Predict the 3D structure of the following.
Amino acid sequence: MIWTVVIACLTLAVFVYMRAQRRDEQPQSAATDTGLAIVEFGRAFPNEAIREVLGTADGNNVFLRLHDGKVGCMRAHRQHYASHLIEPGSVTVHNSPSGKGLVIDFQDKTQDSGSFEFRSSVEAAEVSLWLLGSLLPTAGIDESPRAIQGDS
């Protein structure tokens, strides 16, 4: 009888130990693994070149500044990421009360709206500038090489 109790206790101890080991081996979030964030965004949007990546303090969200002034956003959902491009005119941005974050309302993806806290107020300001830059109207701007170099 005593051996049955000892074997049951040992089995329970091994089960608890293995479960704790599995919990420690969970993958890192997108913000702590910038390379993974870049790869995942590249899969979703293969024609977009990434210039800069900033993650939130909790590691659940990543904002990406793209080559043509657009902004991308990724939200980590356990084993996968939801990626989308922020369309001009589809977002409203406010400062959060903490000063280190932004309250962003995505009008086209309301489930992704919320408060995004960054590691510093400088990072929050940088992302807000990206969003401002992506919302500038480009209609009427002549980007031809002749217009950029000046009329000669």
Summary: The mean pLDDT is 78.
